[in-house]
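User: I'll paste a sequence; please echo it back and then give the predicted structure.

Assistant: Echoing your sequence first, then the prediction.
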Amino acid sequence: MIPLLARKYLYRYLVVAIGLPILARLLAFAGQSLEKRTGKDNFVSRGLKSAGRFAQRRAEKSQGKKARNSEHALR
């Protein structure tokens, strides 16, 4: 049986390792699909895409991955 303290860290790791990247992709996808449907970039689609990028950066940072330079050059 996993001790109570270790369980807390295990659940936190699972949320960061699995849940956060999925959430990031869903937010970015929702922003892109809204932009395609309306035909132009608006406040909501920009917010969703920005939130998706932020969540992806946080997921990569928590997993210890290095920042991708190609992504920073595009902004």
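The CA atoms of residues 35 and 68 lie 25 Å apart. The chain has three helices and no strands.
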